[in-house]
Amino acid sequence: MAASLKLTSEYRCFDGTVGFYCHQSETCNIEMRFAVYQPPQAKSERVPVLYFLSGLTCTEENFIVKAGAQRYAAEYGLMLVVPDTSPRNTGIAGEDEEWDIGTGAGFYVDATEVPWRSHYQMYSYIVRELPALIAENFSVQPEQGIFGHSMGGHGALVCALRNPDQYQSVSAFAPIVAPMQCPWGEKAFSRYLGTDRDSWRTYDATELVLNANYQRPILIDQGTVDKFLVDQLKLELFASACAKANQPLNLRMQPGYDHSYYFIATFIEDHIRHHAAALLN
Amino acid sequence: MAASLKLTSEYRCFDGTVGFYCHQSETCNIEMRFAVYQPPQAKSERVPVLYFLSGLTCTEENFIVKAGAQRYAAEYGLMLVVPDTSPRNTGIAGEDEEWDIGTGAGFYVDATEVPWRSHYQMYSYIVRELPALIAENFSVQPEQGIFGHSMGGHGALVCALRNPDQYQSVSAFAPIVAPMQCPWGEKAFSRYLGTDRDSWRTYDATELVLNANYQRPILIDQGTVDKFLVDQLKLELFASACAKANQPLNLRMQPGYDHSYYFIATFIEDHIRHHAAALLN
């Protein structure tokens, strides 16, 4: 194990292992935490990795506890890696004051603005540092998929669209797809990236997909009674952009479902099967 | 809906509905809370009910959020009912002071001692008041099964062994099987039931099974690295009593598993299938 990687707790689960880890992140310049589910197959072979990016206010624990994903990761032989949603305890003034900025709200961008830029480098952390750390310390193949929920759905889409060679599959639950056009995104991007909106485009899936060359189908599930759908998520903007760019999109509007983990748990099997189809061959 | 039954929140889940309820309990003489998962089948027919009793410190929410049970309740068409683990906010002095007595620690007994007896009537609540309330308000058949975890495993075994005609199936995860012979049980029973140990026997599965006539097989899963196994759970005492009484017992020692919901989630499918086999016919 890399010198700085520390296992903080471990649990047997579906004949594999849930582990919670922390390490000193060079990218974020502070201790970062993540969870890993090692499926039983990883005891004897290298397996593909599936990253899950969580939503606002979550830690590395919510998805592992609530989504029911380990059942299917064990069935298909995928390693799950679930990072925290931001650096914590950085000492940045006001980091804990607002639930949609700072702690628990890293938005998967590399901040360029003071005071956030000294620690809030979540994009580079997710795309580069964390995969290198996982490759070094776990029994993994190079194949990677990525998915997420809400703010984390935004993160997953951005990571995949900007790095199509790195991520062989992508999906999302109720993602923020057009952060430049919704209150959560506008607030976070103006704080982390400054007021030049041109600099925001590289973190906006609806912008990125127009010029991306991802080709493989994107799966998105969205609940129809999700209270954030109309004002924050705006799936129709991404659907239009995908249509314009000929990006295959399987957008499933799920009647009666909301924004919660009850919704995620209901469709997690389909998402893991979507990733398994791309990652296992 | 009965006048006093109040729906506090509701979520679509696996094409059914998770609901959290509260009502004024006559038995406990205070507001009580419980969760219900109504599977999709309940929209068009009456379905059997499966009660889950939770462990120390839990509310009606833990199992619903963490166990992954709704997936299988939806598959088999069982209604899940998950009561809280005790009355709350009763005003009894000291109710919140100890994690293993009072709030979150009702132990599924009818307390006979002051100050608890005015509200802590969990056995009668679970066996009589709650099933009547469920029958009155939900689309259910008379068939009932019951299972639980730790303190709730104790509760499930006691309810089933004392009421074999009411509960057609029973199972448990890491149950307290001999409360008269472990520190948790001795502490709780002496506070709730007083110092006459003879009065404890009707709440001790290892005692009850000797004279019960349950006949149907009991399923128990127990992790081998559960830190409570040796001092508190003592499964071997129940196994011996079952052998002596010719009670069929499927006790599965699960290597490497602990006392957590990661353990429960791993084996929940088997338990729900065990109950479905008895309740659906």
TrEMBL record, chains A, B:
Source organism: Chroogloeocystis siderophila 5.2 s.c.1
Catalytically driven reaction(s): S-formylglutathione + H2O = formate + glutathione + H(+)
Domain of life of the native organism: Bacteria
EC number of this enzyme: 3.1.2.12
Keyword Hydrolase belongs to the record: yes
Species classification: Bacteria, Bacillati, Cyanobacteriota, Cyanophyceae, Oscillatoriophycideae
Family: Belongs to the esterase D family.
Active site: S150 (charge relay system), D226 (charge relay system), H259 (charge relay system)
Any Pfam family: Esterase
Cross-referenced InterPro entries: AB_hydrolase_fold, Esterase-like, S-formylglutathione_hydrol
KW Hydrolase (keyword) present: yes
Coiled coil: none
GO biological process entries: formaldehyde catabolic process
GO CC terms of this entry: cytosol
Stated role: Serine hydrolase involved in the detoxification of formaldehyde.
GO MF entries: carboxylic ester hydrolase activity; S-formylglutathione hydrolase activity
Catalytic class of the enzyme: hydrolase
Keywords assigned: Hydrolase, Serine esterase
Name listed for the protein in its UniProt record: S-formylglutathione hydrolase
